[in-house]
Amino acid sequence: MIRKMLVNVFVLAILIAPLAVMNGSKGEGGERGPGETILYVDDDGGSTYTSIQDAVDDAGPHTTIVVNPGSYGSVEIRDKSDLTIEGNGSSYEDVIIAAGFSTNPSFAISRSTNITVTGVTVSLSLSSYAFYVSRSDNVSIIRVECGNLNSALGIFNSADVLLVGTITSGPTAIVISDSRRITGGLMTFNAYGDSGAGIAIYGSGDINLGWLMLNITGENSTFIRGSGCWNVTFSSLGGIVKNYMVELFSGEVKLIGIDLPDHYFSVYSGARLSLELQRFVFVRDESNTTAIEGADLLLTVDGEELYSTEHYGGTDGKSDGNGRFLLYLVKRLFDGTNTSVFPQNDIRVWYGGGDVEREVVLSSVDTGETSPIYVLLPDFEAPSPPQNVTAEAVDENTVQISFDPSNSTDVVEYRIYSNDTGNWTLILNSTHAGDFLIENLEAGREYWFKVVAVDDAGIESEGVIVNATTPPPTKGTLSGWVLYQGGPLDGQNASGASVTLYNSTHQEVASAVLGEDGRFTFHNISFADGYLLEITPQDPVVYGGNQSGYCVWRGLINFTEEREMTVHIRYYEYVPPTEGALSGVVIYSGGPHDGEKAAGVSVEVYSNTTLVKSSTADENGTFTIENLTFGVYRIVFVPPDEVAEGGNRSGYVRVEVELNFTEDKIMEVTVPYYNYTPPPPPTHPKVRILDKDGEPVEGVTVKATVNGTVYTATTDEEGWAIFTGFEGDFPPGTEFSAEKEGYKKITWREGETPPPLEKEEKQERDYIYLLLLLVVILLLIGAILLLRKKGEVEEE
Q1: Is 763's pLDDT higher than 80?
Q2: Which residue from 137, 274, 264, 151 is spatially nearest to 201, judged by alpha carbons?
Q3: This prediction's pTM
C-alpha cells in the first residue's frame, strides 16, 4: 500500500463556537422564548418522552427537542418545519441514534424545512445511508458523527444544507445528488471502501467545503468522485488518500491550495478541474504608501474572465479600504484530460477616482508564488495650479501674463492657452514661472487666457483663467445717410437738414448741412461713449404738437469704432383730438377736515341726466378721467357719507359744476361743510291751582280742551299742572276745568286767571240727615210697642 500524503497540512485557524445545549434537570417541557417549545427525551424514563421519534411526531413549528445521553432508535422527520434536535451530552458520542438491523436509515429528513441536528452520533443501519436527507431545505447538521456499513450521509434533491464539525465514516463517506448550495467546514472524511469515495457528487452544484481532514484508505478509492457537477470548490485539505484525489467524469471542480502531480487526478472528457492558488492583490499609489480603495480589477485565465468588477463589466467587489483584492489564480488546469496545462493568468487594475484614469496590466502572473501582489498606480493626481495669475493689457496690441510657481514639487512645465477662437489653443510653454508678453493682438478686444502647471507624469493642473482687454483705437470716422420717413417726402434724401454731433458734456464736436445725397461724414472723432447726434430738418415741428411736419431726430451714440449709420427722420401728422382727460384735486372746505384732500369723493360726469363716466379721488384727493369726449357736462362731486344741506345732521354736501369740455382740463373743487344746529327743546304749558287762601292745591285734575281735544294734567305739591302731551302755548279759546273731591269744580278760558278752588259745605246737611233717621227709628219702636199691647188686650 502506498500512502499519498497531501502537501497541505491541515491546520484549523478558527474554532467553531460550541452550540448551546440545554443542561440541568429533566423536565416536562416549557418555553425557551416567545413561540418556542422545548421537549425533553430521556431513554431511562425521566422525561415526558423516552423515544425521539415520539417527540418528533408531537412537535409543532418552533420546537427544540433536547435529548439526554442514551441510546435511541431510528428517527424520521417528515413534513416538519422549524425543528431542532440537540444532544444534551458532553460529547456527541453520549447520544447515539441507530436503526440497528433495520433497512431504514438511522436518521432521515424528508420534505422538511429549517431543520437543525446537533450533538449526536448516527450509526448502524442496514440502509444505504445512516443519515439521509431528501427533498428538504435549510438543513443544518452540526457536530454530528455518522458511520455506516454503506454510506454515512446521503443528501438528495435538497438545497441550502450546512455541514459543520461532522465526522463521516463508511465505504463512501458522503453522497450528494441533485442538490444545490451545500456549504460547511471543519469536517472529517473516513472512507475505507475499496472503490469508495470521501464525497461523491452527482448532478449538483454551488458546493463549497473547507478545512477538511481526509482519511481515504481504499485501494481504488478517491476523495472526490463527481459527475454532472458545477461550481464545486474545496479548500484547506489535509490528511491521507490512498488512490486518486479527484475522479471527475463530467462537470467542474476547483481545489484551492492543492498542488499534486498529474497522476493524482483522473479527469475524463467533458470534465474540468482547476488547481487554484489564493493570492492577495494590494493596490497602492506610486510611492507604495497609500492604499487605493475602490479600484477595479479584471482577472482572466487564458482570456476567460474569472474576476470582473464594474469597470470591466462585472459585479465582483472593488478594492477595500486596504486596497485589497482576494483572488484565486489558476495554477494548473485539467480540461478533459489527465494531463494538466499551466494557463496564463492576466490581471488588469484600473482606477478612475483621481484627476486622471490609470490602468496597470500584469501579464502572465507567476502562479508559483503565494506572496501578495502589489500594484503601484502611476501618479493620478494633478499638480496644484500656478499661483497669482494675472493678465494686463500693456498697449493696444500686447497683454502681459504673470504668475508664480505651483505649490507642487513635481511640476516640470507651465502652459499658456488662448481662447480667442472658441477653443483653447496652446500659445506658449515654459519651464519656469514669471512674466510673459502675448503680442500681435487686436486693439479694443477682450482676450481670455488659461495657465496650467504640468507634472512629471504629464498631468495638467486645473487651469487658472484670466482675461484682459486691449485699449481701443483713439479716433475714427462717423458717417451716415439721412432719409425722410413718411409724409410727402417719404424715402427721399433729407437734403438741407443740419447734422450736429455733441460730446457727453453737450459741447459741439462737428456739424454739417446735408447735400443732395443726404450724407454726412465726420473725421477724427475721438472714440468715447455718450455722444449725442442731432439732425434738424428744414421747418421742423414738435412731435405731439398741433402742426404736421418732420421732427428733429436725436440719438445717443457710443462711438468705440468707426461707424456708418442710416437715419430716418420721421413725419408727424397732427390729428385734432376728439377726446381729452379731465383731472383735478378735491379739497374739503370747513368742518373737521377743512383744507384736507378729499380722498374717496366720487366724481360723476353726466350728459343731461345720463352718467357718462365716473372716478374716485385717491388718497391725495386727485382724480383723472381719461378719454372723455369733448362736450357740455354736469360734474357732480359726492363726498363719502354725504349729508343733505338743511337736513338734521352735519357733514359734507355734494357739489355740481357745469363744464364746457373742449380740451384737457385740470379742476380744483372744494366740497363745503353743512353745520346742522338742532332746535331748542320743546316747551309744555302749565297751570297753577290755588285755594281761596292762595295756597297751592295738590292732586287737582286739570283739563284743557283745544279744538275738541282734551289734554289732562294733575297738580304737584306746588299746585302746578304741566301738560306734557302738548307743546308750546295753548291757543286762544282753550277751555279749562279743575276739580278735586271735596272741592268745588272751577272753569276758565285761556287768558283768564284760574279762580281759587273752594271746599264744599257738607256738615249742616249731614246733621239733618241724622235727625231724620232718629225720628224714623223712634216711630218704628212706638209702632212695635203699640202692636204688642193690643195683642195682650185681645188675649184677655
Answers
A1: no
A2: 151
A3: 0.51
